Amino acid sequence: MGKNLTTRKEDYSKWYNELVVKADLAENSGVRGCMVIKPYGYAIWEKMQAALDRMFKDTGHENAYFPIFIPKSYLSKEASHVEGFAKECAVVTHYRLKNAEDGSGIIVDPEAKLEEELIVRPTSETIIWDTYRRWIQSYRDLPLLINQWANVVRWEMRTRLFLRTAEFLWQEGHTAHATEQEAIEEAEKILDIYTEFAEEHMAVPVIKGTKSEGERFAGAVETYCIEALMQDGKALQAGTSHFLGQNFAKAFDVKFANKEGQQDYVWATSWGVSTRLMGALVMTHSDDNGLVLPPKLAPIQVVIVPIYKGLDQLEAISAKVKPLVKDLRAKGISVKYDDRDTHKPGFKFNEYELKGVPVRLAIGQRDLQNDTFEVARRDTLEKETVKASEVIDHIEELLQKIQENIFNRALAYREDHITRVDSYEEFKSLLESKGGFFLAHWDGTPETEERIKEETKATIRCIPFPAEEEDGKCMVTGKPSARRVLFAKAY
Amino acid sequence: MGKNLTTRKEDYSKWYNELVVKADLAENSGVRGCMVIKPYGYAIWEKMQAALDRMFKDTGHENAYFPIFIPKSYLSKEASHVEGFAKECAVVTHYRLKNAEDGSGIIVDPEAKLEEELIVRPTSETIIWDTYRRWIQSYRDLPLLINQWANVVRWEMRTRLFLRTAEFLWQEGHTAHATEQEAIEEAEKILDIYTEFAEEHMAVPVIKGTKSEGERFAGAVETYCIEALMQDGKALQAGTSHFLGQNFAKAFDVKFANKEGQQDYVWATSWGVSTRLMGALVMTHSDDNGLVLPPKLAPIQVVIVPIYKGLDQLEAISAKVKPLVKDLRAKGISVKYDDRDTHKPGFKFNEYELKGVPVRLAIGQRDLQNDTFEVARRDTLEKETVKASEVIDHIEELLQKIQENIFNRALAYREDHITRVDSYEEFKSLLESKGGFFLAHWDGTPETEERIKEETKATIRCIPFPAEEEDGKCMVTGKPSARRVLFAKAY
Ligand SMILES: [Zn+2]
Ligand SMILES: [Zn+2]
């Protein structure tokens, strides 16, 4: 396995596409815009799911499952919602195939046309709120804190593995509350969970904020988000949490009797993260040698490669390695002992570097004599020789160090790429030469936001939260502004 | 919460439908044939998933994810496969909605018609084997042992919660092997896993066997299955594992170089269980008071209900209960302490009986004085008073006993309802009066099988495996037969 990766400097975008495929994370399928998530990539996604699921359950949420199909009339009930999704809907119109009468093959049976078309869910607010109408009568039924793990489809014209695909996997939370305040607190609590997950599990530093009106979720009153910075200076939205007000409750007529017996519409949130996080993970940490995975999400945390000539040497090494594998597993560390005799050690080193395995042990004849292992860490590519008696402690420490180091490295890069600018000229120039996030004053109008986007391709990523008040003047129009907002070009 | 369940005797089918809804497992949605799986039902499904996933991984399988859409041309490549699924396909024909020009609302944009229609997967053999062509070149790439957790859609005209729904959740394994023998062994190994899961986790006894040709999966050479018996004497197919021969490898041109360097088609299996198992679970154990859940799959294994007047009494009880809750959780037992003051103990007893919680503890003033708990088991409804110092051991034992007891009860029912018959008259008469499984001789022809089905609605559930050879004569035609096969009416 030669890596032959395009370097980040040569072509960042090509580097990413090649890496995702060569590291066995995902590949394009024969279905336009739909990806195949390969076992190694899926194993990382499973670790993400497990951590998030635990956090949701620890905060009182339960999982459920709602239909994949949404009747067209449901989607149409909330006006801005359907406007936001109409242009990218996969539509089911028929329910049967048949043999063509002229013998030309299998065709859609024109007689099996649905009375009402069904949309493959792009998101599930409408079908869920149609259900909540049956579940909610009284304040005693609230809050309703539900999450769903599911696939969704948005018919994107230009797709990229993990970052933008027609079908993707995600979780979508949908909660119902008796008061506005409680719903807002829920949306913010979830943003904190996403932040903790991104920073502590993915080792990806993020900036929390709210979206400008133009970037809000279709149907939301407020959209909270976390924004990460990739190594090419572009931002990536890593999760969103929406305060939906009473919009969906009104569209689907979901009322409850409060403690005083009065009827009121229910308050709502929705929130989600998707397999897009896989793209963020790859682009934040990886290098020209391949993936760099945070130990907390690595399917294999430690790989052990024997270096030997002949079966006798291999047996001696295996006798030493097998108890170590057992001890590491007992500590909850996932270990692979790669004693395949069909591949040379150099090939294996390359492969595990490409796949981002955090810690690699090698053991040859000299190590056997000296009672040592060679320990290499993926993040810095440093190697050292460690006594066998100390190797378990060493690995435990190292996994923690790597987790911290890649977070700190990403944080340093991000801090180095947040620039405060006060003039539009400076903004435009630095956006091209340096990239990254820009904190600048904006007059708060959609017109100015749109102009900046058209002229520079940069968008308002968020209004950082909690807000830091600072009087200033819009860098474009000079009109007054009460706080800086965060701009960047984005994925 | 009054239970007011229809009894099994009154109307078994109605009892089932009511129970699924009242026990908060699932309900019908606004989308024809698609169900909503409610949190309590989904929590059981998650426990099923976790146990199965562990068993698959322990036998070397990995998870991956393939597209939900299957191009019509893919589905058409294996002739008997498409014939089996064509009549129940949800077909995506368009990818955009728009506002009607006459202002009548949202319509499907006729200009956004797909060049090739996409089928929402009814099963994934075709898209997966199209992918395997890229993954398999050499015997070194084999075996490929992959599983997928996914939703699938089969457009059934008559649907019932869990048992037959247009959309359902399942796992589908798809493996590729170098030899016929290895593929057959894989199909049989999976059947053993399914059997172990059904009997040891669900406490549902099953009979293993192979399907007759007429009941085989569309595209399979051999279909293995497990069959369970419900309390109304009808059979339910609880899982299938297919040996696919080289059918899909040939349809998708998947060849590999063997050790001698020769090209050969790859051998395949596929296998699956679905949310249908939820139906089997409900129908096997539950009674006229509600669900009876096996402790291994119960979301709540133990519920504790305080019986008190006033806050002082509640506080005294809580002081006693909270350390117990902690100790039980430390042993991995899931406990709920229901101290809601909005509901009376009687209401709570009813609710947890309906929801099948295996063990219920109650504690009132007298228990407090005597240092005891009242312990009730759901399967037999028996109660006893247990000393506080013994209650943890007692609960641990009881959970195990309940798991065993409901299995043995279901097994006794099943054994009592397997009848060996030698004449068609006897078969028809006992099928109506007694129901259950029938072991009878059959001449092996599709014609006789079809005749029996038309005249009695009974089908061949399986040819029990391993086969018990016994010379005999077909109960219908008198032609020679080498073994008895298993008949029943089925879900
Ligand atoms: Zn050290
Ligand atoms: Zn006892």
Tell me about this structure.
2 copies of one chain form a homodimer. With 491 residues, the first copy, chain A, is α+β, with helices and mostly antiparallel strands. The first copy, chain A, folds into 3 domains: 12-81 and 123-285, Bira Bifunctional Protein, Domain 2 (BirA Bifunctional Protein, domain 2, 2-Layer Sandwich); 302-397, Rossmann fold, CATH 3.40.50.800; 418-488, Translation Initiation Factor IF3. Helix content of chain A is 35%, strand content 28%. Chain A has 14 helices and 26 strands. In chain A, strands 3, 9, 10, 11, 12, 13, 16, 22, 23, 24, 25 and 26 form a 12-stranded mixed beta sheet that branches. Chain A has a 5-stranded mixed beta sheet with strand order 18-17-19-20-21, with helices on both faces. In chain A, helix 2 packs across helix 6. Chains A and B meet through strand 2, helix 2, strand 3, strand 4 and helix 3 of A and strand 2, helix 2, strand 3, strand 4 and helix 3 of B.
List the helices and strands and how they pair.
2 copies of one chain form a homodimer.
Chain A: H1 12-22, E1 26-28, E2 35-37, H2 39-58, E3 62-63, E4 69-71, H3 72-75, H4 79-85, E5 91-94, E6 97-99, E7 106-108, E8 113-120, H5 125-135, E9 144-153, E10 167-177, H6 180-201, E11 207-210, E12 222-229, E13 235-245, H7 247-251, E14 255-257, E15 263-265, E16 267-274, H8 276-285, E17 302-306, H9 310-330, E18 335-337, H10 345-354, E19 359-363, H11 365-370, E20 372-377, E21 383-387, H12 391-416, E22 418-420, H13 424-433, E23 437-441, H14 446-456, E24 459-464, E25 469-473, E26 480-488
Parallel strand pairs in A: 3-9, 17-18, 17-19, 22-23
Antiparallel strand pairs in A: 1-2, 4-8, 5-8, 6-7, 9-10, 10-16, 11-12, 11-24, 12-13, 13-16, 14-15, 19-20, 20-21, 23-26, 24-26, 25-26
